[in-house]
Specification:
12 strands, single chain, seven-stranded parallel β-sheet, PpnN-like_sf, LOG_family_nucleotidases, 2 domains, AMP nucleosidase, globular, PpnN, Rossmann fold
Length: 339
């Protein structure tokens, strides 16, 4: 049985007794299974898989424990994946991601009771007490701020990229070029943190920032949530992992973070994301808050976007087209629109 010790950094190096007990293996706390599975997914970062059941079966002997001591806490990993270990040490990026899991799972749980109480007392919009939408938005901001994904001292320069996780090489290459051109212009990236379109722009933007001697300051945010992280472990290029409580809050976090949304070809999930942001843009209250939407892909994706465009016009009318722009096979033009 192999045991690896990881010392987390930052504020999460100190937990209260209650927080530690809730997540502890020894006490079989209420959060343990969720925390274990998310941690295992993180340790599987970079390995191509979309089968969460297979992942959990392959490492059913894996355990993780939060051990409190006089210095705060440490994480003990029991039988972690071999791919996460180099020369007897857990890869540093994965150590950071383990800290992110601890932060987000513990933090959300600590807020749960107060959130439930506030929502129970919430009134419809316009009442004297906060409505549920406002409460949820503030929760999302709290999580993103704790993850250092939003910073007051930084000009907004984050492009959110949506698209498929299982894509052909030519689509990957094009998305990489879009990311590279964004990185050359100092634009950071936020994706769903998995493979495919979630990886290619991140890889590209890292190279673009490196060419501008800015790789250390670039931000590559991966937004995920517990029900999908095992099927889509973080790709190797994620620099800041954030685990939202559920899919709905993850969607809102994308919109709150990005100053532009870039949509590549994808499946039903990508279509849902596109309809979500279009629904927000069509809301009358948002008419003075433009969020650019760019639909882009290589030449092979032209029929896909023509079909999407026809569908949207059929559903919402011709006026819907003013809310997005379609750019085919021109990565530089996409980056110039963003910058």
């Amino acid at each position: 049985m192999g045991v690896q010790v990881v010392w987390p950094s930052g504020a999460m190096a100190l937990l209260t007794q209650l927080e530690a007990d809730r997540i502890s293996l020894k006490s079989q706390g209420e959060l343990y299974d969720l925390y274990r599975n998310c941690s295992l997914a993180v340790l599987n970062s970079g390995n191509l898989t979309d089968n969460s059941k297979e992942l959990l079966e392959n490492y059913k002997n894996f355990e993780i424990d939060v051990v409190r001591n006089e210095r705060g806490l440490k994480l003990e990993l029991i039988n972690p994946p071999d791919s996460a270990i180099v020369d007897g040490q857990v890869i540093k990026t994965l150590q950071k991601h383990l800290y992110s899991v601890l932060r987000d799972i513990v933090q959300v749980n600590s807020l749960r009771d107060s959130i439930a109480e506030m929502c129970a007392n919430a009134t419809p919009e316009g009442g004297n007490i906060l409505d549920q939408g406002t409460i949820i938005t503030n929760i999302i901001f709290h999580i993103l701020r704790a993850a250092n994904a939003v910073r007051a001292d930084q000009k907004p320069s984050l492009a959110v990229c949506w698209g498929g996780h299982s894509i052909p090489q030519d689509e990957y290459a094009y998305a990489y070029q879009v990311g590279r051109n964004l990185g050359l212009r100092g634009i950071d990236i936020c994706t769903g943190c998995g493979p495919g379109i979630m990886e290619a722009p991140m890889r590209g933007t890292l190279d673009g920032h490196a060419l501008q001697d800015n790789a250390e300051n670039s931000d590559r945010i991966g937004l995920t949530e517990p029900s999908i992280i095992a099927a889509e472990p973080p790709n190797p290029f994620v620099s800041n992992l954030v685990i939202m409580p559920d899919i709905e809050k993850r969607l809102e976090a994308f919109v709150r973070l990005g100053h532009v949304l870039i949509v590549f070809p994808g499946g039903p999930g990508t279509a849902e994301e596109l309809l979500y942001i279009l629904g927000i843009k069509l809301c009358h209250q948002n008419r003075h808050n433009p969020v650019p939407i760019i639909l882009t892909g290589n030449e092979n994706s032209r029929p896909y976007f023509e079909a999407i465009n026809d569908f949207l016009i059929h559903c919402f009318g011709e006026d819907i087209t003013r809310h997005y722009e379609i750019i085919i096979n021109d990565a530089k033009a996409v980056a110039e629109k963003v910058a």
